[in-house]
# Entry
Amino acid sequence: MAARAIVVAFSLILALVIAGGVPAQLSTGFYSHSCPGMLTAVRSVLHPAIARERRVGASIVRLFFHDCFVQGCDASLLLDDALGIQSEKNAAPNKNSARGFEVIDAVKAAVEKACPGVVSCADVLAIAAEESVVFLGGPSWEVKMGRRDSTTASFDGANNDIPPPTSGLANLTSLFATKGLSQKDMVALSGAHTIGLARCTNFRDHIYNDNDIDAGFAKSRQSNCPRATGSGDNNLAPLDLQTPTVFENAYYKNLVQKRALLHSDQELFNGGAADTQVRSYVSSQEAFFKDFVEGMIKMGDVAPLTGSYGQIRKNCMRMN
# Structure
């Protein structure tokens, strides 16, 4: 009787898997047979784009962060406004800020040409983020794939779940924890700010009103970011003053010297629980790279759509 019950239970599980009722798992070899030319197609478009404008690499890494923090890593960020969809692109953390969408669209088009209807936009974004880090001098890792694309977006989620640049250490830790990411992951993943630029509107308060900032550094940033709100809001400054287009550990050296551009970044080294970890990354770029890779893999696992859930969009900007 017990043996028969086991057989019946196994048959039910098998039926659910076949029907798509049980989510599939992500894997590093997901497209090895269905789209063996996927990586070549990605690189054929992505690498020239970053070579033309190295900031694009940082922008794509940021897109991956902002996508995974809202509904999971499902390419919901890439959807434009449509009937029933209020695009996450227009939410406060992304509007006039998130960029690189056209590069992802071009990468997706190249992948579609190689393997029509096989590779999701969510996976294209995931591999593009890894390739961007590597192109700019950072570590590589095996990207798990098998994600599918959402048929929804969350404007409110984008406004509420993405950590703002005004965050303190406790708020940063809490927002990352809701995604299953530890404070250690948060400090390591924040190292992505070793590349890229930020807008004056996001660092104005820090350079004029905070005390935990080097006075000379604050003055130099003020020269291109007027105090008055609405004046020079979109003026840009590098997140890493020394090497904003090279992925390395200089970001953490800036924190120790009180030269973080964003309030939220300086919070990682401000007499709190993260200080020791920051110092360890100053001493060892290898340690930073190791923890960054672990954090990226964990973040890539946040609530993916798999199996029969979602769809494989042909065009990342809209549903099929």
